Amino acid sequence: MMDWLSLSPQEWEAVAISIKVAFWGTLASLPIGIALAFLLSRKQFPGRALLDALVHLPLVLPPVVTGYILLIVMGRKGLVGQFLADHFGIVFSFRWTGAALAAAIMGLPLMVRAIRLSFDAIHRRHEEAATTLGASPIMVFLTISLPLAWPGIMAGAILCFAKALGEFGATITFVSAIPGETETISAAIYAALQTPGGETNVMRLALVSIAISFVALLAAQAMTRKNRSRQGGL
Amino acid sequence: MLSLTLERDSHEGLFPIRIDLKTDAQIIALSGPSGAGKTSILKMIAGLLTPDRGHLSVAGTVLFDSEKRISLPAWQRRIGFVFQDNRLFPHLSVKNNLAYGRFMNGLGRDPFHEAHVITMLDIEKLLARDIGELSGGEQQRVAIGRALLTKPQLLLLDEPMSSLDANRKREIQPYLLRLAAEGVPMIYVSHNADEIAELAGFVVSVEHGIART
Hints:
The complex is a heterodimer.
Chain A: H1 2-5, H2 9-42, H3 48-60, H4 63-74, H5 79-88, H6 96-121, H7 124-132, H8 137-148, H9 150-166, H10 169-175, H11 185-194, H12 199-230
Chain B: E1 2-8, E2 17-23, E3 27-31, H1 38-46, E4 53-58, E5 61-65, E6 70-71, E7 79-82, H2 94-104, H3 111-121, H4 136-148, E8 154-158, H5 166-181, E9 186-189, H6 193-199, E10 202-207, E11 210-212
Parallel strand pairs in B: 3-9, 3-10, 7-8, 8-9
Antiparallel strand pairs in B: 1-2, 1-4, 4-5, 5-6, 10-11
C-alpha cells in the first residue's frame, strides 16, 4: 500500500517544479496584475479597451497559441528573448523560468479580474478622505486602496497559482517537458499516460495534484476570512 | 482672511455652482436645503472638485486661480474636512486613523495638542478599538479628531454634529469656537438654525447651487 502511494524521485521532482513554477509565476505577475487592475479600474485613457482585451487574450486563446507566441517573442532567437539573453543573460526557453513565465501569463487574466473587482468595490470616499489628510496619490494607493483591496488581491493570487499549477499547453509548447527542469505535474501525468502500464503513476500524481490545489484553496479561504474579521465587517 | 470666487458649470446633470465670498469671519455657516450644493462647495474648496473658474486664497496663500492656472492638489492644501459620513478607514484602528494625517503631513508629535483633542472629544477609551466596533456618534467624534490633528489652515465641516447627542454637541461647540478664536477658520454646513446661531459669525445661504451672503 505504501509503495503504491510513494512517488519516485522523478515524480517528486515534477511536484517540486510545479510548485516552484506556480509560486514564482504568481509572485512575478502580482505587481503587474495589481498595476493593470488599478489602471483598468480607475483610469480613463486612450487604448484602455485594447489593453483590457490584451490582458484577457490568454483566457480565450488556445494555450498552444500562447505558448507559440512566447516561443517567437521570448525564445532564444525571439524578439525580446534574444535581447534579454545577450544583454542580461536571462534565458527563458527550455528553462523552468520559462515555465514560470508561461504560467504567469496564463494566470494573469484571472488575477487581474479578481483584483479589479476588488478595486471597483472600494469606496472612493475613503481615498478622498485620505487626500484631504495630506496623502499624495501614491500614498493613497499604498495606505488605502491597496490594503482595502487585499482580499481581492489574495483571491487573485490564489487563482493565478491554481491556474499555474494546472498549466500544460502553453508550457509544453514554450519550454517542452524536460525532466528535472521543465517537467511539471501536468506534463508528468501526460507522459505517464503515454507509457504502457503508467496508470498507477497517473493516479498517484493526480492525487498529489488534487491535494496541493485543495490546500491552496483552503489557505485562500482562511486568508479571506481573517481579512474580513480584521476589517470589522465594514 | 478667506477670499474665494468659485464657479462650476453644469456637469453630468448637476446644476451649476457659484460662490463669491470675502470675509474675516472665523466661522462661516453654509445653510440651505438638502441638495442645494453645499457639499459641492466644500469639495471645490478642498480641491476634491475642480471649479471651472475663480480663485481661492486662505490667509493670503493662493490655492486656486484659474487665470494664473494655479490649482494646488487637495493633498497639499492643508484643509481639514469632516465628512457627513465620517469616512474613517475601516482597516485602521482608531489610533491609526487619528495618526494618519500627522504621518502624511510629516508633522512631529505634539502630545499636548493630541491629548487636548482626545480629551475634548472623549475618545481616549476608543483608541485601541477597530472602526467597526464604534457607534455612529463615536465614529463622528473620531472623524472630527482626525481632521483637527492634521492642524489644518482651514476646517470644513459637513454637518459634523448630525449624529451626536445634545450633550456631546454642547461640549464640542465651545471647542470649535475656541479653535476659531485661535486662528483656524472654518466653514460649517448645517441645517440646524440653533447651531448656526450659536457658532457662525457669517451665514451664507445656498440654493440651487448659488451662494448668497
